[in-house]
Amino acid sequence: MIQGFTTVLFLIIFSINAVGQQTSFQVWTETGVRGKITKKLDWNLSLTNRIQDYKLVTLFPQFSLKYKVLDWFKPSIDYRLISNREDNGNYTNNHRINFNLQFEQEIKRLSVGFRFRYQYSFKGISTNYEPEFDNAIRLKPSLSYDIKKSFFTPILSSEFFFNPSVGPFGERLTRIRTFFGLDINLKGPHELQLGYFFDQKINLPRSNTRNVLNVQYSYNLSSKKKNKEER
Predict the structure, then answer these.
(1) Residue boundaries of the structural domains of the chain
(2) What's the rounded Cα separation, in Å, for the pair 217 and 150?
(3) pTM for the complete prediction?
(4) Is 43 within 8 Å of 36 (Cβ atoms)?
(5) CB contact at 8 A, 208 and 23
(6) I need a surface site. Which of 35, 107, 142, 223 has the fewest CB within 10 A?
(7) In CATH terms, is domain 2-17+27-230 a member of 1.10.10?
(8) pLDDT by residue (tens digit) across 133-175?
């Protein structure tokens, strides 16, 4: 099963065809802080910046709650206030809620995950449908491996965006986002992730691809509290 899952992911990655599409490069940075409300309920507050051509093109703060139902099942909900830069230089604001179902199973040092996400945008769906800012169903299988006696944990994932609406651009796959990255296991409450996204919008007008350098830092308050208790 694991070999088949891995094979599917790699076939998806290397079968992506970007010929005839516009290609851009962006840098995404995310900084955040997280902690626990109860033993099973976690919270997270983060700020994400997306930069292209030395300009801030997207900015969104996010607040999340995640509940541990079982070790392998953790539903969560996110709220985002998204500011997106238009071609004329003005920024438009959009409110979005994500409803997530996260499944994860550990097999020795290998972690196999799957996330189902339904994202709901308060602005509704416009004629110029955007997979990231309008309503969408997103499916994300992932793999990570805990290397023995190493500071690095490699991560591989592919995410599929589907427009569930009935309309000119509805009921179709609209984006595929593939990620290669590393969790850097720092001591204490500091958490760092570095990675690369190959992000491809498909089956829509003005389809394009993005190459993205991603840097993510989080401060875990629960880890700091645990260290104090151990002293």
Answers:
(1) 2-17+27-230
(2) 19
(3) 0.86
(4) yes
(5) yes
(6) 107
(7) no
(8) 899 999 999 999 999 989 999 999 999 999 999 888 889 999 9
